[in-house]
Write a structure and sequence with these properties.
By secondary structure, the chain is of the alpha/beta class. About 50% of the residues lie in helices and about 15% in strands. The chain has 6 helices and 4 strands; from the N terminus they run βαβααβαβαα. The chain has a 4-stranded parallel sheet with strand order 2-3-1-4, sandwiched between helices. The radius of gyration is 15 Å and the shape is globular. The relative contact order is 0.26. The model has no long low-confidence stretch (mean pLDDT about 90).
Length: about 140
């Protein structure tokens, strides 16, 4: 049994890596905060494949983080290999405690294509960057 933390900046490609891990059978349960946020808040990907801008004070985000933690705890308790995603820096010890409490192995995968790539992915077609996306970039890169 393993808990894998898949960390990296918003727009960095964590969900794609998680999907590959699921397909390869390396994880059986995925607690992806973006997917949970989208499901809880009714957000849908636009024609460009991107979700709408997610704001830090969005109630669905707070609930998604709570549900994410509950899913991880229960899945580990039930003996599954679990993947969990975050775009927040310095969350390794937080998630390591979950693995330690469950008596399971803990792995960290950092998915970071670089600040310029992330900025391009989060920018609007005209090159502008919303305040929320700029905060997301700063949250990871400082």
């Amino acid at each position: 049994m393993t808990l894998q933390l898949i960390e990296g900046p918003a727009g960095g490609g964590k969900s794609g890596v998680a999907a590959l891990l699921l397909a390869a059978g390396e994880i059986e349960v995925l607690a992806d905060v973006t997917a949970l946020w989208a499901a809880l808040g009714g957000a849908q990907r636009g024609p460009d494949g991107r979700y709408p801008v997610r704001f830090d004070d969005d109630p669905a985000l707070a609930i998604a983080r709570y549900v994410q933690a509950a899913v991880v705890r229960q899945a580990l308790e039930d003996g599954y290999d679990v993947g969990v995603t975050t775009s927040q820096r310095n969350r390794v010890e937080h998630w390591r405690r979950f693995a330690d409490d469950a008596g399971t192995a803990f792995l960290v995968r950092t998915v970071d294509p670089g600040r310029d790539v992330v900025r391009e992915r989060l920018s609007e077609p005209d090159g502008s960057l919303s305040d929320a996306c700029a905060r997301a970039i700063r949250r990871w890169y400082g």
